[in-house]
Structures are given as C-alpha cells and as structure tokens.
Design a protein that fits this description.
This protein has nine helices and seven strands; from the N terminus they run E-H-E-H-E-H-E-H-E-H-E-H-H-H-E-H. With about 270 residues, it is of the alpha/beta class. The longest helix is centred in the middle third of the chain and has 29 residues. It starts with 7 loop residues before the first strand and ends in an 8-residue tail after the last helix. The model has no long low-confidence stretch (mean pLDDT about 95).
C-alpha cells in the first residue's frame, strides 16, 4: 500500500514538467489526482497514462480566480474530497530590469505569485470546509533567495511564494493544514529548455552546483511526496531548497551568455 493510499490531490500545472512527474509519483503511491492546467493535451496524456478512475482534470488558467475555484470544485465533485494540493504552474521572462516591459512583469507575477495565492486560497477553503486538515505544497525556486540577472520578475515572484507559504502556514496550522514550498534549482523541464539550450549555460549551472549535476522533475516530485506524506507531519511554513547545493554558491552571470542590456551594447 502506498503512502498516499486513499488520498485525493489536485496538482495545478500537472500537465508537464515537475507537475506531471508529481502526478506520476502520487498515483504510484495510491493517490487519486486531479490535474488543472492550461495545457489540455497534457491533461489528456496524464489521464490516458493512468486511467480515468485514477486521474481526471480540467483546463484552468491560474490567473483567473473563477477558473481556479471551479477546478477545486470539480476535483471534489469527481473524487469526493481534497487532501493534498501541489501548485506548480509557472512561467518566466528574461530582460534587464530597466528594460522589462510592465506587461511582462505582470504576466510573470500573475502566474507565479498571484496564481499560487488564488490556488492556495481556494484549496485551503475547501480543506477547512471538509475538516480533517490537509497539505499544500507550492513550487518556489532557488530564485526565491538567489537573485539572477535578467530574472527580476521571476525572482520577485518566487520570493513572494516563499513568504506567502510561511504566512499561510501560520494562519492555517489551527485547521490542521500544513503549507510548505520547494525551492528547486535548475531542473530539466520544458520551461527551462530555452535557457538550457543556450551554449554554455547548463555547464555554468553545473559548475556552481556542489553535487555536479542538474535536477530532474522526479527529484522534485520525490520531495513533494515526502512533504505530502504523514512522515512530514511536523513540517510547515518552510521553503526547502532542493538544488544540489547551488544555493551555497552563486548564480551564473546570465548576461554573459544571453547578452547584456541593450543600453550597454555597442
């Protein structure tokens, strides 16, 4: 019997990358999983891989509060309750802070921070209504604590996720709800593929990682599983940095690989 036998989880951003690896790991440990994502094809692949009795889902944009509310409602209607939530939807943008368009800043913050807030809000409300506690895991980033050139919006949003996690844990502990976050380093996902495709970038990350390799989605899913399990019953309000030790060193100088701000060219 798996450690999540009989549990129901919603995984937001579960159609690919870290989210999809978490779907697979949770199902393997006995959970029924509801996937909410903007990627309908990815949701369909997850359902096909595990069967409709175990995995279901719906399209939802985390920037839309009503869509988030409906996704949580559909999860409960489909599987009867909500025990665990993993919020892993994310996006990024690259620009020097003095050249970053407001629309790009807003898009990244809306998905990576406001989206986590909206998901957490409605997940926690459902857990409180049904009683019995619950677990919420937010996917933050190494960039919640380590700044990076060209990633002002992303770093600010992920730092916000870490503080939102701590504040939510402070408030929700009285309801038996644990809230934690994972601050992952460079993980090989579709979101990081454009960055990793730049010659020399991945090698630079590895050079600043004491363990000498980048992460895989399954590594993050394994930590999410532990956080969601009874073994982590005394853990709440924490952002755990899963990065091969990269937080002990420094972030690569991304402008060296991706070009300096336009105002410095020439």
């Amino acid at each position: 019997m798996g450690v999540l036998e009989g549990r129901v989880a919603i995984i937001v951003g579960g159609a690919s990358g870290i989210g999809r690896a978490t779907v697979d790991r949770f199902v393997a440990e006995g959970a029924r999983v509801f996937v909410a994502d903007v990627n309908g094809e990815g949701i369909a692949r997850a359902i096909a891989a595990h069967g409709h009795n175990t995995v279901d889902g719906c399209e939802a944009d985390v920037r839309d509060e009503e869509a988030v509310r409906r996704a949580v409602e559909r999860c409960v209607r489909r599987f009867g309750k909500l025990d665990i939530a993993v919020n892993s939807a994310g996006t990024g943008a690259f620009a020097a802070v003095h050249e970053l368009a407001l629309a790009e800043w807003q898009r990244v913050v809306d998905v990576n921070l406001t989206g986590v807030f909206l998901c957490l809000k409605h997940e926690a409300a459902q857990m409180i209504r049904q009683g019995g506690g619950g677990v919420i895991v937010n996917i933050a980033s190494l960039n919640a604590r380590q700044p990076a050139e060209g990633l002002a919006a992303y770093c600010a949003a992920k730092a916000g996720v870490a503080m939102l996690t701590a504040t939510a844990a402070l408030e929700l502990g009285r309801h038996g709800i644990r809230v934690n976050a994972i601050g992952s380093g460079l993980v090989r996902t579709p979101l990081t593929e454009p960055l990793r495709a730049v010659p020399g970038v991945e090698d630079a990350f590895v050079a600043e990682t004491p363990l000498g390799f980048t992460g895989e989605p399954a590594d993050v899913a394994a930590l999410a599983l532990w956080m969601a399990s009874p073994e982590a019953r005394w853990l709440t309000g924490q952002t755990v940095y899963l990065d091969g030790g990269a937080s002990l060193r420094k972030y690569p100088r991304l402008f060296d690989f991706l070009g300096p701000p336009a105002s410095r060219e020439g």
